[in-house]
Amino acid sequence: MAVWIQAQQLQGDALHQMQSLYGQHFPIEVRHYLSQWIEGQLWDAIDLENPQEELKAKRLLDSLIQELQKKAEHQVGEDGFLLKIKLGHYASQLKSTYDRCPLELVRCIKHILYTEQRLVREATNSSSPVGSLMDSMSQKYHQINQAFEELRVLTQDTENDLRKLQHNQEYFIIQYQESLRIQAQLSSLATLPPADRQLREPSLLSKRATVEAWLTREANTLQKYRLGLAEKHQKTLALLRKQQTVILDDELIQWKRRQQLAGNGGPPEGGLDILQSWCEKLAETIWQNRQQIRRAEHLRQQLPIPGPIEELLTELNSTITDIISTLVTSTFIIEKQPPQVLKTQTKFAATVRLLVGGKLNVHMNPPQVKATIISEQQAKALLKNENTRNDSSGEILNNNCVMEYHQTTGTLSAHFRNMSLKRIRRSDRRGAESVTEEKFTILFESQFSVGGNELVFQVKVSLRGCVPSKWYLSGTLLFSQHHYSFTVHVSLLNLICFLSL
């Protein structure tokens, strides 16, 4: 059965996800009226990272526009007249959008088809009790989605509590100002004659006692609200960290392992779309909670009340910054690996991707990525955080690249299309040691900010790791507004890269 026919039968969140794939960049009407033609094309045969494939992509774009125009010409009747105009408009719109960048059309349609197939597959598995029990992957996905729903509910709950706390605190401040006004009136009674003072003083004293008693009770209530909110945030952050561990330490590591096997002749590692969607959900939830914690801190600063809340908020700030640092640095990954054997003066390519770049608006100030070739000893020094930034084991041409944001797929990546190993520096070899016994790796480095320079990260990840997979290279939070300092690790692939001269 055609994918589009099955996609139209999706329901609930799956249907919403499918509909969100479309927009001005690719109207859903085009998908509907050209569904058979679209699914019959060999989109996967085009390598998006090879500029020489642009001619193939241009032919597909021209064919798509011709099919739309033919579909428009065959429309008759009153309703057909309106559809004819609409389809003709879409043909012009797609030509205007992709004529200069036809590979982006291929990227867009590949993303749409892959996501539709995944949504249909997940819906089919969930509708079959037997398939659901037997498909452990589907079960895990269901658990991950359930955890995200729980996080959404918890985050909305703390948002409501925070608004209530702010409202109560604002009313408290108004009443506190009223108590100051009453106190000022009492002080001014000293200038009045005794008779007038005796007449007005009892009423003011009674008002002051009433307001002060209310302020005392309300201060205790506010403190309870603050502590309750902090405890809820602790629960949310614990679940966030657990969910992040599942996605980064299990799912993402498995993808890297599949990529490792694919580089050695195994099956393809599969797409990153679902992993990116999970990482983006994590980023969104983490950022929402971070903003809530900062607002709670602002409320505490506005109205300091003695108690343990200051220490709790400091701990929450540290935890949430740690969590977001882990997410950002761990999702800076190598999407496309170069050949395992590199030769000098030979062109090769690689792609680096930041899975949360679009969600955290890193693309608003696109970071630059630098590739450097380093030896096994230099990699070990990096593991120990020793300063080897000025050292390299060779020279790579075209080793700097600015990350590009693809709006149609929401991906932020750097495509190194024309790198070339100009020369390699080897250590002194002894006796019968052969050239293949010396191992190297390509290190990608970048630095970018999140939240308007609020958090600045330096990230590193290695291609074709020359060291055992239990070792790691670091991604580091350089500084933040709260001056936290720690290191988060990014795993290496355990693939050996031999450099042939």
TrEMBL record:
The record's listing under Pfam families reads: STAT_alpha, STAT_bind, STAT_int
Gene3D superfamilies, sorted: STAT transcription factor, all-alpha domain, STAT transcription factor, DNA-binding domain, STAT transcription factor, N-terminal domain
What region holds the STAT transcription factor protein interaction domain?
2-126
* One of the GO biological process terms: epithelium development
In terms of SMART domains, this protein maps to: STAT_int
Q: What is its main location?
A: cytoplasm
The molecular function terms of the Gene Ontology recorded here are: DNA binding; DNA-binding transcription factor activity
Q: Does the keyword Cytoplasm apply?
A: yes
Annotated InterPro entries: p53-like_TF_DNA-bd_sf, STAT, STAT5_CC, STAT_N_sf, STAT_TF_alpha, STAT_TF_CC, STAT_TF_DNA-bd, STAT_TF_DNA-bd_N
Q: Which GO terms describe its cellular component?
A: cytoplasm; nucleus
Q: Where in the cell is it found?
A: Cytoplasm; Nucleus
Highest taxon in the source lineage? Eukaryota
Q: Which UniProt keywords apply?
A: Cytoplasm, DNA-binding, Nucleus, Phosphoprotein, SH2 domain, Transcription, Transcription regulation
Cross-referenced PANTHER family = SIGNAL TRANSDUCER AND ACTIVATOR OF TRANSCRIPTION
User: What is the recorded name of this protein?
Assistant: Signal transducer and activator of transcription 5B-like
Encoding gene (name): LOC107687020
